Amino acid sequence: MKWITRERPKIDRIACPWLIKRFIDTEAEFFFVPFPDVLKRAEELGGIPFDIPDVEFTHYKDKCTFDYFVEKYQVDDPAIHIIAVIVRGADTDKHDLAAQSSGLWAISSGLADIYENDHELLEKGMLIYDALYHWAKYHRNEKHTQNPIEHLLIEVFEKYLKQKTSAKKIPAWAKELKEIIQDQIDTNVTLKQLSKNLDVNPTYLSREFSKYFNDLSFGEYIRKLRIEKAIEHLHTSDYSLTKIAYLTGFSDQSHFTRIFKKHTGQNPSAYRKNLRTK
């Protein structure tokens, strides 16, 4: 079978080929093309498109494409179901679903920077998922695990949170945390998760966070960054609003529209229309 999807894969578009090759079709072929060309090339190649909007193999509600493959082909390996939650958390920016999700995102993002050729990237990514599978099947209960981004955030809090800071001065931990979030927009470790790992009252962390991040809660601050990414797409691409919502991690266009209007005062369609009249 031939499978075709968007170029420059990171999470779902590497996890799904790995699942197909290891559990569904060992002879499968994969093609990566520019987003606007996926359906056309699928028709030309007689291939099956996946991980794009409005096709069978895609996201459904809060589930990602990997979840759909598991359900569609009834893959009942318990290790695969563990991996599915990790992949879902990494691919939908819900890193509180599994402790390993932010680490998977960090590794996948770095891998995509190293390899410009998508097939070479897939080859290296397959090794990552082979390793993840062996962890899930044989080593999941071992305790020598800590994903990189979560570890970095915890180090920042452990280093600075207990230091006495002046009420008039922004503490060093807040400055470093802001830099980390700006550099890693898609690595959403929740304050609830941090408070559990640090054994610090979550209400205190939430209160302190808003003081140094424009009076926004952690979730509001991340949504603000996502809207900024969406605005960048509106300025630089002709993607439909549905596709922009999908690419920026919103569950659907309605959710995207509601949050966009809350942040900008207008619907994304009106925002785009105003851009074109300037």
What's the N-to-C terminus distance? 47 Å
Overall body shape: globular
Structural class: mainly alpha
Amount of beta strand: under 5%
Q: Total helix count?
A: 14
Low-pLDDT runs of 5+ residues are 164-168
Q: Mind telling me the C-alpha Rg?
A: 20 Å
The strands making up the biggest β-sheet line up spatially as: 2-1-3
**Major β-sheet profile:** 3 strands, parallel
Percentage of residues assigned to helices: 55-70%
The average pLDDT value, as a whole number, equals: 83
Number of strands: 3
| Assembly form of the protein | single chain
SSE sequence, one letter per element: EHEHEHHHHHHHHHHHH
In words, what does this structure look like?
- The chain is mostly helical and 278 residues long.
- The protein is 62% helix and 4% strand.
- Strands 2-1-3 form a 3-stranded parallel sheet, covered by helices on one side.
- Strand 1 (2-6), helix 1 (12-24) and strand 2 (29-33) form a beta-alpha-beta unit.
- The chain starts with a strand and ends with a helix.
- 30% of the residues are buried.
- Residues 164-168 have low confidence and may be disordered.
